[in-house]
Every structure is written in C-alpha cells, then in structure tokens.
Specification:
Elements: E1 6-13, H1 19-29, E2 35-41, H2 47-52, E3 65-69, H3 78-88, E4 96-100, H4 107-115, E5 120-130, H5 131-138, H6 152-160, E6 164-168, H7 175-188, E7 193-196, H8 215-225, E8 238-245, H9 251-260, E9 266-273, E10 281-288, E11 291-299, H10 301-304, H11 314-323, E12 336-343, H12 344-355, H13 361-368, E13 382-383
Helix pairs in contact: 3-4
C-alpha cells in the first residue's frame, strides 16, 4: 500500500501582512490534525521561528518544525526548503504541513519544489494582503499592477496564483474600504476565495484541506505573472540590518523615532526589546510600514530571579540564577534584538537614529536607582 501524500498549505504575503500572527493562531486552534510547520525569515535574526516554535508542541526535537532564515526559500535558501521537504517525505505522523514564507518569497519556485515531489500535494496557496497598506500604497488595489513600486510585481504574482486571498487587519478599516479593496482584488484573481480577518482569526478549515490548488491553472498563471527569475528581494536595494544591544531603549525617544521619523524605505522591523520603564517585560516589537504594535511576550529571567511576586520556590530561584550565570553582569538576559528591513539608504539613516534611542550611562544609573521614565506607550499591552 502506497503512503498517502502529505497536503501542504502555503502562507504567502508581503512584509508585515500578518503571516506569523495567523500561523500562531492556526497551530494552536487545529486539534484534529498533526501539523508540520516550516517558517522562513529573510533576516539573519530568527524572529518568526522563535515566535512559532513551542517547547511543548512545535519544535525541532519533536520533528514537526523547521525554521529557515537568513534568506528567502525562493532564492538563496531554496535548497534548504527542498531539503526540508525531502527529510519529511513519507512521514506517516504528519497530516498536513503549513509553510510560512518570508515577505520577499516568490510563489512559483515553491510550487515547483512541492509539485516535483510525489510524496506531497499542494492543497492551498494563501496570499495575505495588509488592508491598510494596500490603501496607502496601491490606491486600494487599483495600482497593484503598476510597476512604479519595486515590490508590485511580487505582490501581484502572489495574488494571481493564490487560491485563497486574506484581507488582513480588517479591524483597522471601515466596511466600505474593505469592500472597495475586495472588488479590486477580485478583478486581479476572480477564482480565489476571498476572506477578511482581524487579529489572525479565521476558521482553519478555510485554509487547510480545501483542495483548491490546481497545478495546470498555476502553470498557466505563472507564465504570465512569474516570468522574472526570483531572488531574495524585489529590489537590489532591499536588505536587512540586525541590531543586537544589551542596553534598554528609552521609551520616549523610541516613540518619537517610530512615529515622527520613520522613513518610507523602512518596510519592516521586528524583534524583542526592553525598556527601563518596563524592565520585567520581554516586548515583541512589530512594525510594518506605518503600523506599529508592541506585545508582552514573557518576563526576563533577570527580573524573575528576585522573586518580586513571592511565587517562586527556592529551587526555582536557584535554577534561574544558574541560567543567568553567563549573561550580562548588569542587565542579565535582557537585550534588544531587532531586524530592520528596507532600502539601504533609509536603513543606514534609521539605524543611526535608533542608536540614539538606547539609554545613556546616566539614564542606566537612573534605572538602577528606580527612578521613573517618560513612557508614552500604552500602559496595557496585548499579552500573547
């Protein structure tokens, strides 16, 4: 008896369209399928993989998770994607695989890799579209085929080859604006199922097990939309800069930088940060174009070791102290790790300005003394 093919759903979309948010919701809501997950991040900083990886459910040790970063799986990391598929081929303990692409991934190479392997069937190709960004950058979709913007051909190809189109972050727009976007997307791809989603909420059955992908149709569409040889970017000027710094970011200066001096060439920034005004909190930073979000992810071990809530057992405190032994003598495991994605010119300017947002020695002394900081960010952050 032959081994059944493993169906695959691809989540594609431009930078910041909400792929990781959707995937995190999806993997925790699906209970009746044994999922395998492949996450791709073009940056050297493995942010998306860290967000999806779960010590209890999805991780490399369990054999159901693979993180491929430092390049796109349609470009320089395509061989790593092919290797992952080959490694998982023939598995009988996986019912479905979900692939989250990076924002610069071209659709056709992934489709080719999957269709070339008899152990797999491409079930659904999903394109996520950030509703607010589409309005701001593409006149609600009227200009999606206008190649004036370097990312336009890639976005058009993702939409054209999609079996399912998700208009994301719908909570930020009025129903009339969403309806206008839907009309333009339907003109570009009339055969795709079209849905809206807020905060990544959608029925898994609309994305998994749909059987909507048609290889012959995809081949025809690819000849029209995917003629250009893909690489890791939609522009030779696009790239990423990774920031590693143990110092805290000053909340007021950070707020001013991102709200008043964010260059149009900064498409995306994401990572983990800390601020002296919230020195217990591991904060997930998530910026896409002009949209900025910050979430409470966890607590720093350096903050917990002092047992501020009186909830830890002596052995738990001892374990935390051992974990912190090789960390920074003043900050412990606290650190800021960000990846900045955009054009070379704007990245250079922006990273120089970001450097000025880190606390000075005098401000670090102020933090050690427990003195307050001017913090304009929302008092209550979304807890993941």
């Amino acid at each position: 008896m032959s081994t059944p093919k493993i169906p695959i759903t691809i989540l594609s979309g431009f930078l910041g369209s909400g792929k990781t948010t959707l995937l995190r919701k999806l993997v925790h809501e699906v209970k009746d399928l044994r999922l395998g997950v492949i996450v791709n991040d073009m940056s050297d900083l493995e942010v998306d993989g860290d967000l999806v990886r779960d010590p209890e459910v999805f991780n490399e040790k369990r054999g159901n998770f693979r993180s491929i970063y430092a390049g796109s799986i349609s470009g320089t990391r395509r061989s790593a994607f092919a290797e992952a598929l080959d490694d998982w081929s023939g598995r009988t303990d996986l019912d479905h695989i979900v692939v989250e692409t990076s924002g610069s991934t071209h659709p056709w190479p992934l489709i080719q890799e999957i269709c070339a392997r008899p152990g797999y069937s491409l079930d659904t190709f999903v394109a996520l579209i950030d509703a607010k960004s589409l309005i701001q950058d593409y006149d609600s979709g009227r200009q999606i085929c206008d190649h004036a913007q370097p990312q336009a051909p890639l976005m058009a190809a993702q939409i054209a080859l999609a079996n399912v189109i998700l208009i994301t972050k719908a909570e930020k727009l009025a129903p009339k604006a969403i309806s206008e976007i839907a009309q333009h997307l339907t003109k570009l791809n009339p055969s795709a199922a079209l849905y809206t989603t807020s905060y990544g909420n959608i029925k898994p059955s609309l994305l998994l097990g749909t059987g909507r992908f048609d290889a012959a149709v995809a081949q025809t569409l690819a000849e029209t939309w995917c003629s250009k040889e893909p690489d890791d970017s939609f522009s030779t000027d696009l790239g990423s800069t990774v920031i590693h710094d143990p110092r805290p970011l000053h909340p007021r200066r950070l707020h001013t930088l991102f709200n008043e001096r964010l260059g149009v060439g900064i498409h995306r920034s994401k990572g983990f940060i800390w601020m002296p005004s919230r020195d217990r909190d591991v904060l997930l930073w998530n910026q896409a174009a002009g949209s900025i979000e910050m979430e409470l992810m966890a607590y720093w071990k350096a903050a917990l070791v002092s047992n501020p809530d009186g909830k830890l057992l002596p052995e738990e405190i001892t374990m935390l102290q051992a974990m912190l032994k090789e960390t920074h003598p003043l900050f412990g495991d606290r650190a800021c790790e960000l990846t900045i994605i955009g054009t070379a010119h704007d990245r250079l300017i922006f990273t120089q300005e970001l450097e000025s947002c880190f606390c000075t020695p005098e401000e670090i002394t102020q933090w050690k003394q427990g003195r307050p900081f001017d913090d304009p960010w929302p008092k209550t952050l979304l807890s993941v």
